[in-house]
Amino acid sequence: MKDKEIPNDYGLPIWGGNNFVIERGKVCINSGAKPAILDIVNEIRTDGYRGPLLMRFPHLVQKQIEKLYGAFNKARKEYKYSGRFRAVFPLKVNQFPSFIEILIDKGAAFGYGLEAGSKAELIIAMAYNQEGAPITVNGFKDEEMISLGFIAKEMGHDITLTIEGLGELETILEMQKKTGDPMPNIGIRIRLHTAGIGIWGKSGGINAKFGLTSTELMRAVVLLKESKQLNKLTMIHFHIGSQMEDIAPLKRALREAGNIYAELRKMGAEHLASINLGGGLAVEYSQDAQSKSASYSLQEVANDVVYLLKTICENKGVKEPDIFTESGRYIAASHAVLIAPVLELFSQEYQEKALNLKPEGNPPLVSELYDLYTTINEKNAAEYLHDSMDHMESLLTLFDLGYIDLQDRSNTEVLVHLIIRKALDTAAHLSERDRLQQRIQEKYLVNFSLFQSLPDYWGLGQEFPVMPLDRLDAKPTRSASLWDITCDSDGEITFKTKRPLFLHDVDLSEKNYFLAFFMVGAYQEVLGMRHNLFSHPTEAVITISDEGYQIQELKPSASLLDILDDIDFDITDVQKQLKKRIERSELIPEEKRQDVLAELYLYLSENGYLKTTRLV
Ligand SMILES: *Cc1c(COP(=O)(O)O)cnc(C)c1O
Asked: Is the whole model's pTM more than 0.70, yes or no?
């Protein structure tokens, strides 16, 4: 299908990165045999897995890694840059084992390493990092974490501990002196005077949480020299924040870092050979060309970085350093797609058949509303709408005062909705159109938890691309807001008049309707919270070939018992209590108790998401 024939592509060309295409009205994976996501979903559901589904696509991880190394190596070649390009994946972005397994596998050819920011992450890196690939360790460290660094070194890892303060360096040097063990490499996080960027940008600037000032840097060199360990200083590091919109702050930071690098080398740090730019490469989340997330391409970043460093090194007469990056979002975001079934549409009752006018006569205002509804047209739409709003106000007041009954009130609601909808259909140019769409939104109840699966929407207002998996050859007509199944009123993605979401008017008793949220592979999984005790969704790893697709791995969402166990309930006791109460119940006949208990235990072994696609 040609682009212009697609009634609504949900901004796929903007955020999709050619990873997906619309074919035959369905979202398909743009690789190999181009399977439709819906076909994969249906296969998995046939096997009994309901509820939300997180699909991982290893080929998209590979694609991002290749793009990252490709762009920097191209720039190095172009500018005849002699330093190497090296990269580590920051584990905080996604530590889930089925993702890490893909990452290690796809990164092996490049010597792609891992970055750890905590003890638990360091353990993952020590266990799974590709041999010979680098490990960097950022964040605050205590003695135990530093010991872990020494152990990693002894295991043969190429490990660099980035110090965030002088105290850490002192501890490392003392430990080395005491044990005589080989030292891990030392990196120093510098405190930039240029500020960080974006909603995540507290990582830079003179008041930043992390990093050494110039005075502390000079002191660090002295300490290292005194301990005869200056040859272990190999890296300087900075990180200006996540999802950078613009390239300028990175360039400013790099100028600072490049000059600090050159100065430290002049002070005798001869093994200082790497500049680590941290992460921050943005991904495109926007479904609307007007509000794009990033104003640069990866190749521009790579060119600017290489060129800038080359210039600084030439000016200061020092060797060109290896360039390290720690971009995480850029690598992980696109690989995961969350698919959630729509369970219910909430304003379907407002169709003409819901109207129940009384044959014996209706309140005059209700009759007038009915007349407005039957005679509204393009010319009178604005005026009639206005009248109907007034009538509604009056009728609701009459109800509060006890003059009309519940049936009259229901007819009022239905008629006003019908009038708004008709006004929308007849007068596309109405200035009130936006406001109207707000009023007549359809609420789509979606089988997922926003807190568990899109926490950045809840916490930071980060929007994620969303679209239905099929019916893309039909025009979506309903202005939609999305409700999740938590009991929290924050569990809603509201309709935005500036960036409206339109979905299809579907009859769920006839056919399922699935929504897919894209770009959820970075941060969302591990930040996701168990609000209302909803757990991580069922995961599937999908590989694509010229023949079709394969479901490599399927990890069901945690069972109810596992969820309770996870928050430290004694699950043996939970089961004992349930059993006791059933056995004591006078409402369950004795011969049925065993069956009830069996049924209950079956539920305990299943996950907490809803099963049906229809509530009524
Ligand atoms: C969070 C973090 C990163 C990753 O940032 P992205 O925006 O995901 O690329 C890299 N380095 C450090 C030090 C971080 O704290």
From this structure: yes
